[in-house]
Amino acid sequence: MKKYPKNDLLIRAAKREPIERTPIWLMRQAGRYMPEYRELRQKAGNFKNFYKDPHLAVQATLLPYHLLGVDALIIFSDILTPLESIGMEFDFKEGEGPVFQNPIKDEKDIHNLKQFDTKDISYVGEIIKQTGKSIDYELPVIGFCGAPFTLAAYMIEGRTSRDFKKTKKFMYQNPTAFKNLLDKLSDMLIEYLNFQIDSGADAVQIFDSWAGYLTPDDYREFALAPIKKIITSIKRNYQPIIHFTKGVAGFFDEMITSGADVYSVDWMIDLKKVKQKLNTKASAQGNLDPIVLYASKETIKKEALKILQKWGKETGHIFNLGHGLMPDMSVENVKFLVDVVKQESIR
Amino acid sequence: MKKYPKNDLLIRAAKREPIERTPIWLMRQAGRYMPEYRELRQKAGNFKNFYKDPHLAVQATLLPYHLLGVDALIIFSDILTPLESIGMEFDFKEGEGPVFQNPIKDEKDIHNLKQFDTKDISYVGEIIKQTGKSIDYELPVIGFCGAPFTLAAYMIEGRTSRDFKKTKKFMYQNPTAFKNLLDKLSDMLIEYLNFQIDSGADAVQIFDSWAGYLTPDDYREFALAPIKKIITSIKRNYQPIIHFTKGVAGFFDEMITSGADVYSVDWMIDLKKVKQKLNTKASAQGNLDPIVLYASKETIKKEALKILQKWGKETGHIFNLGHGLMPDMSVENVKFLVDVVKQESIR
Questions:
Q1: ipTM of the complex
Q2: Facing residue for A289 by CB, picked from B212, B215, B270
Q3: Structural domains of chain A ordered from first start
């Protein structure tokens, strides 16, 4: 049986075991804001080659280990990765994000989706294995996936969207077919996350980036239900599950019934309220507004301290942003944030 | 003293007086989805000429009276209208929205803002007067303004934004100057709303479209405080104040201390929860997801009924969307929604 990584602060915080200080990692911590990342990206030629090449992807995953000193490494990959295996073809266009060749239009398209095969994403397993090995299992390696609703939205819109018009129209007009799609995606994600854990992931995060645009009723039915199914079905020893939803303030009470160990929230909800609602039954991750990182170090420190104070000295908090780092951020400021949290959160 | 309009359902719902049925109007009800609106827009030549020409703007304002049968008419105008008077120059670019020539960069720019003069926006008073007269005061005429935080964000970003990076950076780095700007805008908006009420507005709505991107602490300090100041300072007889914030679920408890008569909310918060929290002390407006209007009539009816049922038969609810109508929506579906709500909400 796989053992805890040497620095197991994140695992302990997730399980509400005692911790000496608050663990910190950052969403999109291996990203375009790092010159070293941009070099690797250039070597790869394009984004897909980059995340499919274990050698380059592991180097990207390790950058925050070398440059930031974070307490966990999330593998460099993309939430769309497993969709190629079920027959969805897409490309990443510069400045546009993913564009699908044949977005889902109707029931037939859902019926025609292929069976997921972990062989098609074996490179993800390689990245997890090699990352752990490269650092001699010093830090937890976090695997991840997109949540069923978020993946369904990408598959139906065919690209990112501001209003999810096509997705919601499909959901409202044909809820049975939509649920069928969510079911297929859930089954795929159970296999995918089990595969990541078998490959050595010490934790997995489920990203529900788009569910925040739903009504609370629709959130419960179309976003939360499939996630509950996934969480119930994952085989794991110690590995905590982190559940992230952007824009969750209106249905946080529902979200925290998903069965996850850690709920990752954005900055539009008060961490003190989050703590009260969790009532020692689960942990929280978050929730600095990434925009703070554009400000002065003085401001960064002030805002980081606010968050640490909101949670207090109890265990159960993993410091993170409310959303990912952005390409034009300064590595120096990001590193400063990591240092501040590590220094100021000592028990 | 001005009297209630003949159909005063909206006023009574806002004051929690008995109503025979739920009043309905829709944000952006006079808009590009109407062929008749597009004709008027073409006549005007550009968007600015359109809202500055009382003759054309009144015709636009009246379209939902003739075509939809709503219970209130919001004047056709723009939240940026008063900013020209204080020296901010901007244009509306096709497909891009407003673009400011000289966005606010520093304290000096704030210091140099001119004194607001209602003479510069006398056309807004004309539109209100002529709208009421045209329909022989049958329906309430709603005036409106943008909230200080939202206007400040436009002035600093210089255009719409997805992350409000410049605004938040300014706010974090220079909170005193930012508050000074909010103060100037609040003073302007007090004059502006008083002018609208003096011109005959039966209600005014304050649109805080962007405050939902703040943390709850920053919302309280930078968005809510100036609105409280405005609401306290408006001179009115019966005219209710409607306070709209997009993305408010994380700080709804704070929002409802603003002193407004009606809180207008988006669809990401449960109307039942809203009702409980208001606890008969104020009214609510909302909160259908506009995207529902792309679906079938059956779906529109189902989702509208859900909202009516969540509030129940008590007074205090004004039916509306959670956000504005969109250009590619069908007039037929919009009209269907209005009819359904009017029929199905009879006490």
A1: 0.94
A2: B215
A3: 9-344 (3.20.20.210)
